[in-house]
């Protein structure tokens, strides 16, 4: 019985929307799960805040916890001025977290396991930081690349490192971290779950031997739930750190 842990990441065309410049514009399973993630977030926020009960229910409590968690993250990292970017950070955090959790469901699709998705979000943050930093600070924004207190004889090297870090390392690491963690975690889950099925086909002795990979699969699933939140948090906190550079240029 062949096991293909990569098959779960295959993008499948559901239907064709149209053609632009000879290129097909298709609605895929990835697009569908993005819509599902947005729908879940919308239902959570509407259900949590629409009724405005004095004594909050479970959904309202969860919605308020997520709101306060993101708001406190921004205030502690960027300061009160950073709250103008609350919609951006909140949207990124909730989208990544919900899509990651949905992807853990068997036979579901994990949106953030594709580099094109994580790269698009990382580039969105990068260009917002770059353009808002220039809009707010003008040319003084480039003081970001000139740390204070650096000896003059190594300053050119430090400036070069800062430029490479800002324009290349930041967006690449911002996108790769989320992509790699979700990809590796789901591959491991698929492999151990396949061991359970393969051993179960061998009869009673096989089922006894399958207890160990089954236990690992359950443990990995719990770990993936934690990783789903942690990766959303890491992506959001890095976004806040980068936005802080746009608001407070310089070191």
Write a compact overview of the structure shown.
By secondary structure, the chain is mainly alpha-helical. It is 69% helix and 6% strand.
Give the % helix: 55-70%
- Shape call: globular
Q: What order do the SSEs take from the amino end to the carboxyl end, as H and E?
A: EEHHHHHHH
**Continuous helix count:** 7
Radius of gyration of CA atoms, rounded to a whole number: 22 Å
Structural class: mainly alpha
| Spatial ordering of strands, largest sheet | 1-2
**Counted beta strands:** 2
Q: Overall pLDDT, averaged?
A: 86
Biggest sheet features = 2 strands, antiparallel
Q: Which stretches are poorly predicted, pLDDT < 50 over at least 5 residues?
A: none
Which terms would index this structure?
251 residues; mainly alpha; two-stranded antiparallel ribbon
Would you give an account of this structure?
The chain has helices spanning 29-49, 58-77, 86-104, 115-137, 155-200, 204-209, 211-247; strands spanning 13-20, 23-28. It is built from seven helices and two strands, in the order ββααααααα. The protein is globular, with a radius of gyration of 22 Å. The chain is mainly alpha-helical and 251 residues long.
